[in-house]
TrEMBL record:
It holds the Pfam family PPR_2. This is Putative pentatricopeptide repeat (PPR) superfamily protein. Keywords: Repeat. InterPro entries: E_motif, PPR_At4g14850-like_plant, PPR_rpt, TPR-like_helical_dom_sf. PPR repeats lie at residues 129-163, 230-264, 292-326, 393-423. It comes from Helianthus annuus. It comes from the Eukaryota. The keyword GTP-binding does not apply. The lineage of its organism: Eukaryota, Viridiplantae, Streptophyta, Embryophyta, Tracheophyta.
Amino acid sequence: MFLSKGLMNTKSYLSNHKHSQHVFLQKHLITSSNFTQSNPFNSDSKHTSNLHENVYHTEITNNAYDLVHKIRECTHSGLHNHGQQLHCYVLRSGFISDVYVSSALINFYVKLDLVKDAHKVFDEIPEPGLVAWNSLISGYVRSGKFRQALSLFLELERSSICSDSYSYTAVLAVCGQLRFIRLGGTVHSMIVKSGVECSSFVSNCLIDMYGKCEHVEDAIKIFDKMRFRDAVSWNSVIAACTRNRRIEQAVGFLNQMPNPDTISYNEIITGIAQFGNMEKAVEILSTMPNPNSSSWNSIITGYVNRNNPRSALKVFDQMHLNGIRMDGFTFSSILSGVARVGAHRRGTLIHCCVVKLGFDECVVVGSALIDMYSKCGQVNAAEFIFESLPDKNLVTWNAMISGFAHNENSTKVIELFEQLKHTKDLQPDGITFLNVLSACWHNKTPLEVATRYFESMIHDYQIDPTVEHCSCMIRLMGHEGEVWRAEGMIKRLGFESCGGVWRALLAACGVCGDLKVAETAARKVVDLEGDGEFVYVMMSNIYARFGKWEDAGAMRKMMRDKNVSKEAGYSRIE
């Protein structure tokens, strides 16, 4: 009865009602309510209204299978409140120990991007089964919390439960994203020992992992060993080649592929647009059987990333004339190009198109609009869009904070940063703190205050400082004449072998006039980056400031002898 009923629920979930009915007739042991529930789950009529009424009752059911069904309905319909009510009932009634009920609850929270709540459910289960482990690991992967997913997988490996193909493929995705090739290789060995390597699903994930870890040959070996290759297999190996600049190999696989689809061509276009000749990418676009918005988006993004936004705008116009459906990625890409050239008028016209097509409440497009208006000097328009967006993610907050920093409104930067700190489910990242530190410098904030922000970033938010963070702090130290503190910070944070921070220190010495530290910084820059006009010009000016005219002249002579010339600056406006 248990197996028959489990098959019944699984097949109903997959909409295979004929097979479900066959099991029903064969075993005669399944309640009639179970079969009749399988149809409303997949039907469109009366589903939401009936669900709203049924789930709300206090005494929901004494049947675990009915409970799983109702939780899945809440998951499918995105009914957060009803799902929470079911969760409370599960705890009260003791169904949390049922492996299917608890796994359904974890999946419910995962699908609603509430992975913390999913983990709480997991912790409530007396003895979580493999399905629960896999659901939670996949949830962390899906939400981009790769290290938490990896930690959970390692915990699973230490338990008495054996991992399966779903466990392995989830952690392979983590290895690919974080480029953990050694761990990926270890997981591959575990897969071979477990005997699931022959699965095309697992093989496809291995190809993807090796491709992202820049081990293309290993990806191709997996592909060559596959007995049965589907479209995902071909597209995965093509993507592995294009990501690693092996465009000709990728084209070779495309030509061998039995029935190339739009995804196959898009992978080629994306690779060429990123690493190859843009004219070749445009040529492939023109010969594609069925180009879609992603095909055009790759060309637009390619031009924008190559600092050729005007060509990107031409492609955008052609896309509009051809009646190709534009999406959020189209607008975010082209708005990025507009921001680079400060084309305010053109950006406003694109904004009108965004509103007309109903993308004005899209968080990705909204963030791009904020960035565009800010870089065009229209920070008030950017702030209006920020306030109008119904949903904001961290990118949106960072775009607005960066916009205020770009327009030297340091007060607003700090004000918005404090708001972000108290926003539910969001917390500042490295980009946020970089803007805050930059605002501190523009606002001539006392070094002690900026240092508190810097230390909070490291200790409170566990964010590793970058060269940019360190350079901001050095500029602040230079402004207050305390560059002597910078050398200790550079050593403490492990940036001794980074030329960028020593360049920042040398520039700070030019502001405060610390000759001893300047000479140390100059030697470090030359050792790490070689001779350059920056070092000679800075040291010449610093020597002149201290009246050491012979040393200043020697710097200028060395520039002439080594044919080092100062680059001329330039400006670009719309």
